Amino acid sequence: MAAVIAVPAMAAEITQNRLTHADADPNNWVMGFQNYSSHRYSRLTQINRANVGSLKVAFGIPLTSSLIGRTRTNLQNYPLVDNGMMYVDDGAGVYYKIDVSSGIQGRFLWAADAALEKDMGARSRGIALYANALLHNLEDGRVVSVDTDSGEFNWDLQIARVEGKPGSSGINVDREGFTAAPIAVNDMLLVGNSKGDAGSNGWLAALNIESGEELWRTYMIPGPGEFGFETWADDHHAWKTGGAGLWTTGSVDIAQNITIWGTAQPVPMFDPEFRPGDNLYTNSAVAMDLDDGSIQWYFQYTPNESWDYDEQGVHILIDAPYMGRNAQMVTHFGRNGYYYQLDRTNGDFLSASQFVDTVNWTAGIDPKTGMPVEYDPNLLLQTYIPETRFLRGEGLNNTPACPHLLGGVRWQPPAYNPVKQIAYTAGNDGCFVLEVDPVVSLGPDGGIDFDAPGAQFGHKDADWNAIQNTDLHGLLAAVDVTTGEVISRLRQPFLNNSGILSTAGGLLFTATVDGAITAHHDETLGELWRFHTGISIKAPPITYAVGGKQFVAIIAGAPKPGGNFGHVELEEMIPGTMLYVFSL
User: What whole-number distance in Å separates Cα of residue 226 and Cα of residue 246?
Assistant: First the structure.
């Protein structure tokens, strides 16, 4: 690892008090989701509905270091800004401090290189700031701390791929790694193993920020003797490769001293017959104590799920009136097509409403339990709606399941306007059919035969091109959190893998895979402004102010969309990486 140092610039220390009260500091964007509640809302109003049509590029910042030794990037991250100093990573282990205080250019002050191997993809979902440190977890399982004044590394430690869950015999520990951005809180850094799809177990760990020492680790798949172990009712220890990865950052409730993360699907994702049972704690919201990581409550959205509707997406913490009382809620736009509201003090179900075009894997959500109406706790293999429940031996004869496996919300962060009490999401929609091949166990002691036709997914020959897609498109949706009802929706022709930003100027900002950055009316969702970058985008926008002037920033640096989904022009796109900054 190396640091290239130029003229250092000093900025205010990122204290716990500043992070706790981030809402009170709209000029700076010091957390990826804006605050611990994941609101992604800015109180800045200089850019508003009346003038957003005049928004233009103020300057650009190339992040081409991510392409050195690689042919593509997959940047799903964001910059952070504190008092005119911007901090960002390139997805390939290089970190930058950039002076953006002039408002007309970005001056690189230092670059720190964590020397990520070139065979690792250039992918990131963001960094964290705490005290005088930039903190990040890498795909290779390392976590690093960089001094924000000098650009020197404070520490660089291998956290993932070093131990297995007790009793797991270390199966697939070598497949662990990080993609979810870390959270800095109470002198700790929270990092989650994101590689559940590769057949490892999801877990959340807390590290001492000063030293990197691991303080606790909580696994999402229960082992023998732990609550929920009986929900893995097979005879070949599928829990050892159970999934439930944490690949999107959680939220923090400071008052309750808990952190709430969503978990991904069980493994194998498409073959539920390999893993009979509810498969806890997959497809769940899980609340953990900040002091010791103990699970305080959970809510499982789809037991024994098999469409890749993992629910690791962002969980927004909201205090608002609901059904005649002031409620402390955790809300979630699900990948399964429903928007959920839960009581975040105990995980009790409050409401669910459909926000995508079509849902046909279930006939609905039980208004009392929050479970799919077909769910039967006495069954080890859930039936749901058989015509859209893909099982072994059915070939491609099923009715297309909706939403699409890319549908609903994945890593795309939502937003919440606390003044209007509206929650927003940007995501995808459509339907699909695939053929299931049986996943093969290595034996009674656990493990999956990755060389068998079903590999670790249970998808026919692991051929993603064999999936039959129907009407795949992007969408925006808005929900009144006081009722839980969807109040507006907007269909987008291109997939939306970016996420959304809400501002007090009455605007929403987002982007789509064709490289377009757009601004929308925050009530009607109508488009008010558009700028084409020519580079596919999967990253969320942020906003900040310097010298009394508001800026909007977003990273363009996603790979050419795989499969044009009816849009031939997507095949013509080429790789690129640029951080765009806009102003009036």
Answer: 20
Domain ranges of the chain: 2-583
Q: How far apart are CA 48 and CA 26, in angstroms?
A: 15
How big, in percent rounded to 5, are the helix, strand and coil portions of the chain?
10, 35, 55
Neighbours of 164 (CB within 10 A): 18
Residue 547 in tokens: 């010298």
The yes/no answer on whether domain 2-583 falls in CATH 3.40.50.1370 is no
Per-position pLDDT tens, the chain of length 584? 334 333 344 457 999 999 999 999 999 999 999 999 999 999 999 999 999 999 999 999 999 999 999 988 999 999 999 999 999 999 999 999 999 999 999 999 999 999 999 988 899 999 999 999 999 999 999 999 999 999 999 999 999 999 889 999 899 999 999 999 999 999 999 999 999 999 999 999 999 999 999 999 999 999 999 999 999 999 999 999 999 999 999 999 999 999 999 999 999 999 999 999 999 999 999 999 999 999 999 999 999 999 999 999 999 999 999 999 999 999 999 999 999 999 999 999 999 999 999 999 999 999 999 999 999 999 999 999 999 999 999 988 899 999 999 989 999 999 999 999 999 999 999 999 999 999 999 999 999 999 998 999 998 766 777 889 999 999 999 999 999 999 999 999 999 999 999 999 999 999 999 999 999 999 999 999 999 999 999 999 999 999 999 999 999 999 988 766 678 889 889 889 999 999 99
> pTM here?
0.97
Contact 327, 421 (CB under 8 A): no
| CB of 149 closer than 8 Å to CB of 10 | yes
| Cα–Cα distance for residue pair 37/330, rounded to 1 Å | 9
Residue 358 in 3-state DSSP?
coil
